[in-house]
């Protein structure tokens, strides 16, 4: 398959995507242990882990990419365990496990169906669909639950890593209107998330401390 970009640039974009998204997952795990709160929404976790499972074990398309997706899969397993552990006091155990299992099954079936329907052996359509979902849910999580489990380094690495993936994907499928729309929407939402998270961080840093005064 021909690329619009020079081969060196393509390899650089692929490396940037693999590295930065590995950093994203690692920082989410670190922040989760630090805050005792999983910083990734459950729907995103299930969508990610099933995509990685599908294209690591069931439909691998390249040995090097298989290694990358395996690393991501293992990191997402840790994030999923974090979510189950830190959410066990919020929901009944059976309800929590049933909900997560249902999301995993639904996500896996959708990924497989999209790969077959769109003849997408690389899983690009579902990958950017997941990314768009994550961008929306990260904003929703920040607005509802605050910045627990989240950080600006995570946000920046997600945005730049996704930009690398977007340019790489555009070099392969410049004619795809759907993918182009998703590239743009993800970038806008990621930029908005960074601004919101930065403003929350600044406001919490400058929040006046409450002192007890003796009258």
Automatic annotation (TrEMBL):
Keyword Magnesium attached: no
Subcellular location: Membrane
InterPro entries listed in its UniProt record: PaxB-like (IPR039020)
Membrane topology designation: Multi-pass membrane protein
Keyword ATP-binding annotated: no
Annotated keywords: Membrane, Transmembrane, Transmembrane helix
A Pfam family assignment: Pyr4-TMTC
Transmembrane regions listed in the UniProt entry: 12-30, 67-86, 98-116, 122-143, 155-173, 179-198
Protein name, UniProt field: Uncharacterized protein
Gene source species: Paenibacillus sepulcri
Source lineage: Bacteria, Bacillati, Bacillota, Bacilli, Bacillales
């Amino acid at each position: 398959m021909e690329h619009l970009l020079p081969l060196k640039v393509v390899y650089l974009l692929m490396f940037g995507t693999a590295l930065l998204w590995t950093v994203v997952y690692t920082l989410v795990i670190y922040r989760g242990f630090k805050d005792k709160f999983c910083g990734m929404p459950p729907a995103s976790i299930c969508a990610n882990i099933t995509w990685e499972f599908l294209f690591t074990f069931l439909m691998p398309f390249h040995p090097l990419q298989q290694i990358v997706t395996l690393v991501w899969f293992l990191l997402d397993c840790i994030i999923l365990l974090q979510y189950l552990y830190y959410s066990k006091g919020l929901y009944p155990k059976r309800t929590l496990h049933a909900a997560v299992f249902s999301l995993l099954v639904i996500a896996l079936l959708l990924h497989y169906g999209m790969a077959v329907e769109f003849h997408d052996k690389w899983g690009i359509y579902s990958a950017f669909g997941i990314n768009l979902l994550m961008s929306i849910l990260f904003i929703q999580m920040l607005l509802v639950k605050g910045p627990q489990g989240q950080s600006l380094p995570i946000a920046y690495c997600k945005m730049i890593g996704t930009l690398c993936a977007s340019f790489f994907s555009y070099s392969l499928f410049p004619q795809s209107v759907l993918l182009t729309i998703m590239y743009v929407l993800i970038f806008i939402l990621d930029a908005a998330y960074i601004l919101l998270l930065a403003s929350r961080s600044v406001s919490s840093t400058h929040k006046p401390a409450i002192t007890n005064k003796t009258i």
